[in-house]
Write a structure and sequence with these properties.
Blueprint lengths: L2 E5 L3 H4 L8 E3 L6 H7 L4 E6 L3 H16 L3 E2 L8 E6 L4 H14 L1 H5 L4 E6 L5 H10 L5 E3 L7 H10 L3 E4 L7 E3 L10 E5 L1 E2 L10 H5 L3 E2 L2 H13 L4 E5 L16 H10 L4 E5 L8 H9 L6 E3 L7 H7 L5 H14 L4 E8 L6 H14 L3 E6 L17 H24 L5 E9 L7 E5 L4 E4 L9 E9 L3 E6 L3
Parallel strand pairs: 1-8, 2-9, 3-4, 3-5, 5-6, 6-7, 7-8, 10-13, 13-14, 15-16, 16-17, 20-22
Antiparallel strand pairs: 11-12, 18-19, 18-21, 19-20, 21-22
Helix pairs in contact: 10-11, 14-15
The chain binds S-adenosyl-L-homocysteine, iron/sulfur cluster and FE3-S4 cluster.
Length: about 475
């Protein structure tokens, strides 16, 4: 197998940070019409893992592929282009990916024209990329998260050459405005406001795979939202690894609270945002959320741990007390607020005492939703180098105990919703029960109810009649 290296990843370069954010527009590819002729009538298969940043990247890639005449297929056997858009945040995400590559690699033997591409965050890690190059001879294109802008050229090269193409430029990154976009939902849209992350929490790979924090221009975000509203979108989620850092790198004098307010004023029915780092969450933001009824009363506020020593070792830049004060201010100023969080158990050398601090924080805040994880060492991050004396069994036990604590509060909150009426945006037929439809309340609770197709994309009033831990059952009381 011959490998043509255009760029290889480098963790040190990925961690470099420059002050100014550069705004780039999409460059064109001079052999676009040749590529169009090559792939005429062909189909692509794309599978995305990981967070909304990847989901939104998939929409950009599909926009570019649809533009040149490719059609999407759900069946990899039919495709002449397979893209696996990967996530590196924890080890199990990588394991799943390797399983899927193993399943799909036979297709390359059956079709010489197949371009088998791996992109996204996994590719940004030098050691993992080398391992994949050694293990999977069938993959013939690797490209990084900064490379989507060169998608046409990369596919063209992989298709017309026998070599495996590797193009992963570890860099701070720039803002690249790419259009058209093929959105996966007609009523709910993701809008990027800031890319990358500068926080470097000691366990996290994201700052290395996604580059530095760089904000889109205020007007760019507003224009995209305005366009979505005119197309009939009901819900917009503003996206960033840390949306609260919005604007810090620009000279526009605007912050995330200003942006949120301006988008709310455009009149979208439902406005959400994710994710917020607790350290940057301003009182000004809380006031904006409280002021506008179309900003959903749901905040995802990852705490990670309830112990100050662990928070410090994680590099989270806030204390337990600061987090609790912030949650209290939010609950006081925003009636009906639902708070969700992320928690990591088993950070290196977490003691029983420290773990109990997390449990007591959970009992104090009474989160309405949570994602829980066991610490997964990520090569190249500081935490991966820490010696760890805590056994796997202890970590698993703590994990289960934490979930029990969380569920107690989540269940109580769900039960309190019975006999009350909530606004629900109808998503479509339920994934778990074909006789039911489903959608989310403003507080982001999943509800199942009887409906019909013409209500998809509409906001209806639903009375809750039954509650389960993670979902509710209700009936529509109007429409
Ligand atoms: N930017 C967001 C999302 C980061 S990834 C934020 O800061 O919240 C989503 C979650 O994955 C994190 O909040 C954290 O709880 C978890 N996570 C990240 N790295 C991890 C690791 N190495 N092991 C276990 N969980 C991790
Ligand atoms: Fe990772 Fe921390 Fe950045 Fe979130 S804020 S993406 S956890 S480094
Ligand atoms: Fe995963 Fe990359 Fe998102 S590592 S969580 S896909 S930023």
């Amino acid at each position: 197998m011959k490998v043509r290296i255009i760029h290889v990843p480098d963790m040190l370069k990925a961690a470099s940070r420059k002050k100014e954010a550069t705004v780039f527009m999409i460059p064109s590819f001079d052999k676009k019409s040749e590529l169009e002729a090559l792939i005429k009538g062909e189909k692509y298969y794309i599978h995305t893992y990981g967070c909304q940043a990847n989901v939104r990247d998939e929409e950009t890639m599909r926009g570019l592929l649809d533009e040149i005449g490719y059609r999407q297929t759900e069946k990899p056997e039919e495709a002449t282009l397979i893209i696996l858009n990967t996530c590196a945040v924890r080890e199990n995400a990588e394991d799943k990916l390797f399983g899927e590559i193993g399943n799909l690699k036979r297709l390359r033997k059956q079709n010489k024209n197949l371009v088998f591409a791996i992109c996204g965050c996994v590719v940004e890690q030098p050691e993992i990329l080398n391992k994949m190059l050694r293990t999977f001879k069938e993959v013939n294109l690797y490209f990084g998260t900064h490379e989507i802008v060169n998608l046409y050229e990369l596919i063209y090269e992989a298709r017309t050459n026998k070599e495996t193409i590797v193009c992963v430029q570890s860099k701070a990154g720039e803002v690249i405005e790419i259009e058209p976009v093929s959105r996966s939902n007609r009523y709910k849209a993701f809008v990027n406001v800031i890319y990358g992350c500068n926080k470097f929490c000691t366990y996290c790979i994201v700052p290395y795979t996604r580059g530095k924090e760089r904000s889109r221009l205020f007007e760019g975000v507003i224009n995209e939202c305005r366009g979505l509203i005119s197309q009939g979108y009901q819900e917009i989620t503003l996206l960033g690894q840390n949306v609260n850092a919005y604007g810090k790198d620009l000279s526009e004098g605007k912050d995330f609270a200003d942006l949120l307010e301006e988008v709310a004023k455009l009149g979208i029915s439902r406005l959400r945002f994710t994710t917020s780092h607790p350290g940057d969450f301003s009182s000004k933001m809380i006031d904006v959320i409280a002021k506008y009824p179309n900003i959903m009363k749901f905040i995802h506020l990852p705490v990670q741990s309830g112990s100050n020593r662990i928070l410090k070792a994680m590099g989270r830049r806030y204390t337990r007390e600061q987090y609790l004060a912030l949650a209290k201010e939010m609950r006081e100023k925003i009636p009906g607020l639902a708070l969700s969080t992320d928690i990591i158990v088993g950070f290196p050398n977490e003691t029983d005492e420290e773990f109990k601090k997390t449990l007591s924080l959970v009992d104090e805040v009474k989160f309405e939703a949570a994602f829980t994880f066991i610490f997964s060492p990520r090569k190249g991050t500081p935490a991966a180098k820490m010696e760890d004396k805590v056994s796997k069994e202890t970590k698993t036990k703590r994990f289960q105990e934490l979930v029990k604590h969380l569920e107690k509060h989540i269940e109580a909150r769900s039960q309190a919703m019975i006999n009350k009426t909530y606004s629900v945006l109808v998503d479509g037929v339920s994934k778990t029960d074909k006789n039911m439809y489903s959608g989310y309340t403003e507080e982001n609770k999943l509800v199942h109810f009887k409906a019909c197709d013409y209500l998809i994309g509409k906001i209806v009033k639903v009375k809750i009649i039954e509650s389960h831990t993670y979902s509710l059952i209700g009936e529509i009381i109007d429409g």
